[in-house]
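2 proteins. here.
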Amino acid sequence: MGAPMAVRLWQAGLLRAFWNRSARHAAMLNEHGMTAATSPAAATANVSMACLCLLDAKAVQQVVLGPDGVVDGIKDGAAPLIVDFSTSSPAETRKLADEYRRRTGGHWLDAPVSGGTARAAQGDLIVFCGGAEDDFVMAQPVLNAVARRATLVGALGSGQTIKLCAQLIAAPTIVAIAEALAAAEANGLDARRVPDLLAGGLADSPLLQLYGRRMAERQYEPRLGAIASMLKDIDAATGMARSAGSPVPVGAAAAETYRLMVSRGHGAEDISSLVDLYTGRDRVLRL
């Protein structure tokens, strides 16, 4: 999602430089007239804010604190405010922010996003922020460029907490949608009718209307989100809940469905392809 978000910031005149770990995504940004920096340090030298959108906390640590990272680019003046759009655990976020503050005096705003790549391109994301109110206010131009709504949830790490709570709802729901469509097909119904038939009822949801239609059509491109990424999020969410003594049996069960797909080599595929576990090339769930 970082690439379309970078385009939004560029179009708003807010992006001075970018760096991307993926040559493919960097090439896409080059097509918009942007030139890639040689490192995170070069991209963020002498800026007031450094925005990140990365896979996980390990990648964030490398980009910010590793060799040629953001910290190495701070030569004179104040450290940039880190606005981290990545999704990770609240504990990992607080640990990284504490280390960044210790080494540079700089501030950190965790700002995980919800909405997917299509909405990222439209600037229609929902952003959950954790941090100081002054930092949230400072980040408003950036947040306005990429989001329909950005909310300061609470202290540092709170944005990650609510994002992972959202995934505890979304991840099992998507699995349930796959099961329902497979059951409809197995009983002779056209699965393509299911989202329309259930529209407006208690079982309806934006997830059903989006992923249910894609599953019924076996439409996996353009990819909305990778199975491995959802597994990373749901594992972080169940870990967060358990560390606070909160049981998550439904979330844990859903995680095993995603883990099964990853173990079979489908981690990079779109979440919609979960339906294949029940009806397609990886039909293995038999009771």
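next one coming up
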Amino acid sequence: MKKQKYQSGFSHLLILTIILGLALVGTLGFVFYQNFIVKKDDSSKTLTTNSNKKSDSTTTDKTVAEPKNTFKIPELGIKGIYNGAHPINYDMNNKTYSLLTKTLAFIDSSDIPASCGASGEYRPGVAKIARYAPDDDATGVSLNGGTADPGYVWPKASEAYAVDEYTNLRSHKHVGNYYYYLVGSAQACPNASDEALQESIFNDVWAYFKTIEAIK
């Protein structure tokens, strides 16, 4: 009988030892899970969030570059897209028209021979672009070399150029706070082939004029 009691007590002790061992293993497993698996997952989320923030800030700060074929006339406050095959430039100081308006740009091209204009103070070039404030007199017709009746009262630019218009002789466009007027050269080249070239470049400038917008 004593031997049976000893064996029964040993069995109980063995069972308790096994239970305690399992509990210890479970506790260690839970601690390992909390300290390593969960923290690793949180750090991964944090890294992803920071990466997204960096990407967003990069996108916000990125500026869009202007096309290489952008042609600006800062004195008139405009820019546009010029796709012509011939190079163009402009002059704000043509003496012949200096009394007419200070906001008049003469468009020229180095591809047009010098014979297409007198040397020195006056060269017809390709075209002219004038800028008018809303209350300025719409003297655009005279930019094409014509004369007007001395008693004629010019309408205001805001009235004369209220609606954008594009023709192969003259065009006008409302951009921002100003009205812009485009007209061809008052004088043609003496040589027929050069005159055709002058007209061809004007058509390219005309296409450019349709795209102008205010320089911000």
